[in-house]
Write the structure tokens for this entry.
Amino acid sequence: MPEFVVYYRVSTQRQGQSGLGLEAQERDIKLYLKNYCDEYSVIGEFTDIESGANSSRSNYQKAISLAKKESAILLVAKLDRASRDVEEIARLIKTVDLRVACMPFADKFQLHLYAALAEQEREFISQRTKAALKSAKCRGKQLGRPTSITELTEMGRKAGKVMKDKANVFAEKLRVILVSMREAGNSLRVIAQALNHQGFKTQRGKEWTPAGVRNVLVRLAENGS
């Protein structure tokens, strides 16, 4: 009978006191245990109210130590509840048997990929935000200056190219996981659900749909290897 050490994490004291973040995690953990384990035993539960960027969290380390000592499975609701750092996830899956409730069939290779993609996405969002602020600042300096039709046309052309380049960059960040899951026989719907469960957003910040996954796969195919 498998033994589990369950770990929960919320980022703020307010979330911890309200229970909103914890309730969702507890729900996902219960669904996993009910639907994917005929028999099981939970030998420990730990909760931290702290940022996922800090790998020295007290209860996080206690959960790892117990799971390692008892050869138990460390179970989290979502991958980022354990850590947001890809290097920490890589270390963790080498230390204990890590399972993610929202990704019940994910193996160590896929978990590592998801962690890497999440980190890349956060970096991309940060760069995009900085670029948008810089662009807004530049536009502010030019307020009141009339813009000719030729200039508007050129601006539109450049904006189109920038959008296409950004879409290509975004697609490339997802190449490994999307292509590998598709080649493994997963449907577009299953891939979309997996991305949504892990908190990934589309380039426009929306939930993934099968059509959205297909569009990115088509773009990747057009761009080649």
Observations:
- The chain has two domains: 3-104, 109-223.
- The first helix runs from residue 13 to 18.
